[in-house]
Write a structure and sequence with these properties.
Blueprint (H helix, E strand, L loop, with lengths): L12 H18 L2 E9 L5 E8 L2 E10 L13 H16 L9 E9 L7 E9 L2
Parallel strand pairs: 3-4
Antiparallel strand pairs: 1-2, 2-3, 4-5
């Protein structure tokens, strides 16, 4: 994994985050999930990085990408405000569906750790958020 540009400068956080979301979507597909939507934005300020199906389960996935675990795991960056944003996004998605109250669902976090010269480390915390 290369974390610097050709001129030697470090990739910015937005680029790292986009790359992490791309890798997370690939990982989810390889592990039996069907990615339905990326970067869903709901009215009222809700947002979800990835909406996917895992069998009969509808999953709302937050992706956290970091270049180190020196200050903790990526999932630890999901604070109460971010959790509320994700849950508003989930509710926005569910409002678009008929009979959404009966759909099994959960909120997951995918952690992506990118280190220079190493393969990305990707893990999932299923049901990490209470939706």
């Amino acid at each position: 994994m290369r974390l610097t540009k050709a001129d030697g400068t470090r990739l910015d956080n937005a680029t790292l985050g986009n790359w992490g979301e791309h890798l997370a979507a690939q990982w989810l597909r390889r592990h039996g999930r069907k990615v339905l939507y990326r970067n869903f934005r709901a009215g009222g300020g809700g947002e979800v990085d990835i909406v996917a199906r895992h069998g009969s389960m509808l999953t709302f996935v937050e992706v956290k990408t970091r270049t180190s675990t020196a200050r903790g795991r990526p999932a630890e960056a999901v604070n109460k405000a971010k959790e509320a944003l994700i849950l508003r996004g989930m509710q926005g998605w569910l409002r678009m569906l008929q009979g959404s109250q009966n759909i099994p669902r959960r909120c997951d976090i995918v952690e992506v750790v990118l280190r220079e010269g190493e393969r990305p480390e990707i893990s999932i915390l299923e049901g990490a958020l209470k939706g």
